[in-house]
Specification:
Order of helices and strands of chain A: HHHHHH
Radius of gyration of chain A: 20 Å
Strand content of chain A: under 5%
Number of domains of chain A: 2
Number of strands of chain A: 0
Helix content of chain A: 55-70%
CATH class of the largest domain in chain A: Mainly Alpha
Oligomer: homodimer
Number of helices of chain A: 6
Distance between the termini of chain A: 34 Å
Largest interface: A-B, 39 and 38 residues
Largest sheet of chain A: none
CATH topology of the largest domain in chain A: Multidrug-efflux Transporter Regulator, Chain: A, Domain 2
Shape of chain A: elongated
DNA sequence: GGAACCTTACCACGGCTTTGTGAAGGTTTG
DNA sequence: CAAACCTTCACAAAGCCGTGGTAAGGTTCC
């Protein structure tokens, strides 16, 4: 039993118990549960909680921002569409009819997705 | 003069003048200015405004979300740190000492930044 | 020059997010 | 088995976000 229950985890991580539950609700840190339903925070979860706090402080983010970043990683159509929109900031295509643009981006996304799926395998970043 | 002033742009884009200023404040659509300081919305800006609305509606986002996505594209240290944190969600490195992880990510960032700076001669002074 | 437009800078409000607290009840463990 | 912990749920306060309005003043253009 080297796992901490929620109040212990709260003390060593700097978050309140309430916030630990909220963070779980956002899908940011989801500890496993005991057979009776208790949250069990292991070293990995505790570390993620501490670095999460540093991340937020250092860049002035909110939990919602990290949640959104997570959506961007998860929902590839979201990511490609948002990135497409941002890219149009610098070089915008005058020749694409206004109401077609989003549809066009989506088509592009589907092409990309089909391609990615076909070649499958991990798209993990190299580092 | 094929550029619209803010009220005209508001009418054809569906945003209120107030929101157009707000959107500019978030760095999402920044029209050029006339010599007297009037915002001038060209076809490109108008298109971006319309697609922005579609983007928000389709994925249920807020303007703040898109602003954050933009920061992620702009600030490479933000991006790498957030992505690093998210990556630790699935496979967390038990072997990395807790307090070293963020520092490690930051070091990585500084290496990247140094590289970028070295090859970009026109950056303003850092302080 | 004057009408009609634009600028920035505030204050304000309704709604959603964040966070706390308490109630009612189940789990762990000495 | 009892003390101390945990669970979920709900209510509530504080704060932020999106949005409107208005005031004081500058720009455009007929």
């Amino acid at each position: 039993m080297d796992a901490l229950t929620i109040n212990e985890a709260a003390e060593t991580s700097g978050w309140s118990p309430r916030m630990l539950r909220y963070i779980e609700e956002l899908g940011l840190v989801e500890p496993p549960r005991s057979s009776g339903g208790y949250r069990l925070y292991g070293p990995g979860e505790l570390q993620r909680l501490r670095t999460l706090r540093q991340l937020l402080d250092r860049f002035g983010l909110g939990l919602g921002d990290v949640g959104f970043a997570r959506r961007m990683q998860t929902e590839s159509d979201l990511r490609t569409t948002v990135e497409g929109w941002l890219r149009s900031e610098a070089a915008r295509p005058e020749h694409v009819p206004a109401d077609d643009w989003l549809a066009w981006e989506q088509d592009k996304h589907e092409r990309l997705l089909a391609e990615a799926t076909r070649r499958d395998t991990t798209l993990r970043e190299t580092r």
